[in-house]
Amino acid sequence: MSSKPVALLLSDLGITKTHSCPRVSDDNPYSESQFKILKYRPEFPERFGSLQDARGFCQSFFCWYNTEHHHSGVGLLTPETVHYGCAEQVIAERQRILNEAYQLHREWFVGRPPKPSALPEAAWINPPQKPTPEGGGPRLD
To answer: Which residue, 9, 61, 89, 111, has fewest beta-carbon neighbours within 10 Å?
Structure first.
């Protein structure tokens, strides 16, 4: 049994082979994370029966991933919630519920009242570069 080299397979599939490096736009940690979540879902099959089966599975996965899965990188919200501008409302409701829990059961919380996860200002694959204070080349913060 033999198989074709990966380069030929990629070519047959219309995929351009790259030699991605960190800090370039091809190196996408978000895609890597998404693939890991996909692969370790309990319903992920050992094998797909066909290309159509794989596409159908991925369509339902990406719908779940964007509308139901709570992501730690966006304050335990769904991408849909953040994208459609509902994040502040959801965070405020979480805070209301946490305040109620704190009032009823202070013994559950050590030290201070609980706070929901904050929404990050921005998420970057490659953050924009800023000039150095000395007027030299770009630097990363």
So the answer is: 111
Cβ within 8 Å of residue 68, ≥6 positions away: 78
Q: Where are the beta strands (DSSP E) in 1-141?
A: 130-131, 138-139
Query: What is the enclosing helix (H) or strand (E) of 96?
Result: helix 87-104
**Residue count of the chain:** 141
Rg (CA), the chain: 22
Which residues fall within 8 angstroms of residue 81, CB to CB, at 6 or more apart?
A: 87, 90
3-state secondary structure of 56: helix
Residue-wise pLDDT tens digits, 60-71: 999 999 999 999
Any long-range contacts for 130-139 (C-beta under 8 Å, 24+ apart)?
none
